[in-house]
Amino acid sequence: MLTNQLNEILDGLGLLTYELVLAAGALLVLIIGVLSKKIWLSKVAFTLTLLVSLWWMPSISDTIQLFDGSLVLDGLGVVMKWLFSLLAIWIVFFPNSRSHPPEFYFLILSILLGSSLMLSANHLLVVYLVVELTSFSAYILTNFNFKKQSFEAGMKYLIFGGISSALALYGASLIYGFTGTLSFGLMDFELMAQPALLNVGIILFIGAILFKVSVVPFHIWVPATYQESPTDAVLILSVIPKIAGFVLLHRVISLVQIQDTYWLYVLMAVLGSVTVVFGALGAIRQTNLKRLIAYGAISHSGYLLAALLVPFEEGVTAFVWYAIIYAIMNLAIFYFISVWEVNGRKELSDLSGMYISEILLSVLVIIPIIALIGLPPTAGFTAKFYLFTILWNWYQEISDVAILSYLIVLILTVVVSLFLYLKIPFYIFLKEATAPKIDKSKTSQKILATIFSLALLWVFLRPEILNKIAEQINSINW
Amino acid sequence: MINNLLSLMIFLPLFAAAIVGVIPSHMKGAIRWTTLGTMLVELILSLMLFVGFDGSHQAESWADAFQFVEALPWISLKFGSLGALEVNYFVGVDGISMPLIVLSGILLVIGVISSWKITEKVKGYFVLYLILSASLIGCFAALDFFLFYVFFEFMLLPMFFLIGIWGGPRRSYASVKFFLYTLFGSLLILIVMIGLYLSVGNDGVNSFSLIQMMDGSYLPGSLLNPETHFQLWGINIRYLAFGLVLVGFMIKLPAVPFHTWLPDAHVEAPTAISVLLAGVLLKVGGYGLFRIAYSIFPDAAMELAQPVAILGMISIVYGGLVAMAQNDIKKLIAYSSVSHMGFVLLGLAVITLEGISGSLFQMVSHGFISGALFLIVGVLYDRTHDRQIENVSGLASKLPLYTFFVVLFFFGSLGLPGLSGFVGEVLVLMGAIGAESINQLVPRWIGMIAVLGIIISAAYYLWTLQRMFFGTYWVREESWDQEMKEINLREWIMLAPLGILVILLGIFPSVLLDPIENSIQFLVESIINQGKTYLSL
Questions:
Q1: What is the ipTM of this complex?
Q2: Which residues have CB under 8 Å from B98's CB, separation 6+?
Q3: CA-nearest residue of chain A to B73?
């Protein structure tokens, strides 16, 4: 009996190579950091870890349950792990990374580890553990600018995060109390008459996940955290835990059968609509570049959430595409921000008249901007358009007003998001420069910025790669 | 004839934009001449299109109504259980889009000549100009809704920068307002586009093809299928969809009450951009109404003919009245555009042969006239850097040749017989007044009130002539006096061809009406027949 279990665990480890490599790499980076303070060494170790993690990505051909069903491996998870590693590699090129202490990359790897486990978590306690692993790394990372404001933001983040995870634990205990199990695989909500207290538990538990994915009203930490954290860390925070959180949310809401739990369905649609609108409106009065993008990122959460409300493979496909394109857009925009930041441009007003001294970057940034708004000819349009089509199609099938209203809100908010993102080119091109600044962006930085921007155009013009990804997911999941 | 004529017209400016992009920015001459050369080639291509277009072709269905057709597969996205989301590169012209492409070809050349005076950031300006030209022509040629939408949206960005960077003092306000208004309109169109995509197709395969949408090959049970009679908030969803595209394109047209961005954009835009904005961009709105709102939703168009006609009538009268109250001559012309585009809406709403031919004719004629009017304002502005009507008077004695052109285009705009404006407006009014006895869609009184628009426009144009050009010569600032020189060669080159076109179309309207006649007839028949069929389902 015991041997059997041990064997099972050992077999399971073979399928967790990605996570194991990340964990080992994280420790390696930490040790290197202790031995030598040279940041480039940590960067090399970090990059190697990510490359090895991709190299050893286990190939799976079926949905697999590990460790008594506490972890689940599926096609969605594999695709997302690829995305995480491929995205994280780029942060070593961020110009603001020169001043980081070596522990920075240890924390990034911990976030990656927590997030990739979040993709597979199928057990209440595992969920709690991996969410906390991600969160704690994130709390610390927020402080890595070592300024008073950063500590303030980090503290805000910590307090809100602490409260939400406490509530989640309480919710988890309620769920456990009613279902008698911690494993998602064994829970059966259908048999129950859905007592009110169980619903409270579910809401509290989902609330903690919504905190991770910054859905209103759990978004309060986002603007300050984004503004004060190092820009490369913000890129990671804005994409990886968020997407992982959405995958987890997807698992939880399919578990509680959201399609049959109409009140929860409507609640999600309402929260999503509010998120989209609030994020866009909140950005209007912002003057700090990163804060502006932070509100935009809140708004994007509402779009991602919409995809999860559509069941079957269409919804998942729309979600994955949106997530991938969202990752590329954020990579591009945060890279630009990082370059500008090093040149002393942090506020919107610092961008005034920038096209004179920095014409290439000024022109190129328009591409990620219109992608974030969701206009053609960029990948941002592909993502939004596909999402809208899926939602309309779902509406056509079920004629549910909630989903239609959500769709209308999503489409009309594009106008507001135009207004908020347009501020960046507006300042760059239309405002007169207050004081001439000399920009010293290097050729290598310009090349990277060009690659990131053109990628957004390329995915619009030739979206075949998205089909391949969809095939990958669907071949395993369904 | 060249194969791929339309593709050539769409991609040549983009290619030229890339070339201009690599020319060093201090070589202003090279940049200007490259752009001008490109646009002249475009003009020649558009004339080839005009000559090569077979006006005698009588269409049986939308599927064979188009000429110069090119189709290539472009995007194919996996779409779950529905198969794939297919987008094609699909272009072609019929009698409705052909004149508008020719109009663009002509005005784009004139725009470049007018832009010769731009001296700052020349490179950026002409790159944006070329991109704008490509998307304009793409918009008129696209037969795939997705492609149309991409071009339609892609116009906004160059326009935003062209107004925002090279515009007047309040340019940032005007450019953002322009962008927000038109993006709002295009999002409304996006909703309908998605709905149509999911409702139209063949054998269960969905399609973005405008031809299939116009021919009404709906999938069984889909929301926009006229047989489904789906109700949303108690209204037939097809009427809602028609309303959305109507509003979307009315913002672009613009029609009252969605017109407020236009005067701001015009006043702040540089002359050449005003010319394009009034001459071509507004026509995209009108074209969208023809191609999408009316051709795809004929049932709703027939049911809602009266309210739409009333909106057109209000635009005509209200636009004219507001124009009369303006002191800034550019604003006056901007509001007169609102008034004249109201004729487009009115002519379309009545769905008769006269009305719709008049509507299309009015678009072309207004393109030439309003382009010329903005050039005329530009001439004055270049000399005085002022546009207030009360600041000058008696210009006729000082600048007789200039005054000749002003009178020509003012009279063209107010509808003097023998000039092009007359033909369009009379056809529209004939359609509007006659509709009651042809298809009973629109009562007579709407057309009769719209006639007032001509009187109002006569009033404000003649009053402006009297205030600015007649009487004793006087200018507010002494320094303007030395600048008051007769129009130069560059201005001649811009104004004379437009003058000739306005007279030509006024005396021989058949130059334009003959090639489009069959297409218009087919459009009217298919709207009425399809509309009746859909309504009886």
A1: 0.86
A2: B49, B50, B53, B515, B516
A3: A462
What's the burial of B9, exposed, middle or buried (CB within 10 Å: 0-12/13-18/19+)? buried
Q: How far lies A274's CA from each of A207, A267, A269, in Å?
A: 15, 10, 9
Q: Do A376 and B149 touch (CB under 8 A)?
A: yes
Residues of A in contact with B154 (CB under 8 A): 376-377
Rounded CA gap, B402 and A476, in Å?
75
Q: Give residue-wise pLDDT tens across range B67-107.
A: 888 888 887 777 666 667 788 888 888 888 899 999 999 99
Q: How confident is the model over A278-307, as pLDDT tens digits?
A: 888 888 888 898 999 999 999 999 999 998
d(CA B42, CA B134): 10
Report whether B202 contacts B217 (CB < 8 A): yes
CB within 8 Å: A415 and B184? yes
Q: Which residues of B376-386 are buried (b: 16+ CB within 10 A; e: fewer)?
A: bbbbbbebbeb
Residue B470 contacts A where some CB pair is shorter than 8 Å: no
* Cβ–Cβ gap A426/B164 under 8 Å: yes
- Centre a 10 Å sphere on the Cβ of residue B459 and count the other Cβ atoms it contains: 15
Q: In this structure, is the dihedral angle defined by the CA atoms of residues A257, A262, A264 and A265, taken in order, positive or negative?
A: positive
Indicate the burial class of A444 (C-beta count within 10 angstroms; 0-12, 13-18, 19 or more): exposed
From its phi and psi, is residue A303 left (phi > 0), alpha (psi between -120 and 50) or beta?
A: alpha
Which residues of chain A make contact with B179, given a CB cutoff of 8 A?
418, 422
Tokens of B310: 């009333």
B85's enclosing H/E stretch is strand B84-93
Instruction: Read off the amino acid at residue A170.
Output: Y
B222 CB near a chain A CB, below 8 Å?
A: yes
Reported as a single tens digit per residue, the pLDDT across A22-81 is 999 999 999 988 888 888 888 888 999 999 888 888 877 777 788 777 888 888 888 889
B247 at interface of A, judged by CB pairs closer than 8 A: no
Size of interface A-B (CB pairs under 8 A): 91
Domain boundaries, chain A: 272-478
Q: What are phi and psi of B394, to 5 degrees?
A: 65, 30
- CA B96 to chain CA centroid, Å, is 12
Nearest chain A alpha carbon to B127: A363
Q: Each residue of A170-191: pLDDT tens digit?
A: 988 988 888 888 888 777 766 5
Question: A317, B198: Cβ pair inside 8 Å?
Answer: no
pLDDT of residue B439: 80
* Chain A closest-CA separation from residue B507 CA (Å): 43
Mutate to test the interface with A, among B72, B194, B218 (most CBs of A within 10 A): B194
Q: Give CA angle at A332 (A328, A336), nearest 5°.
A: 165
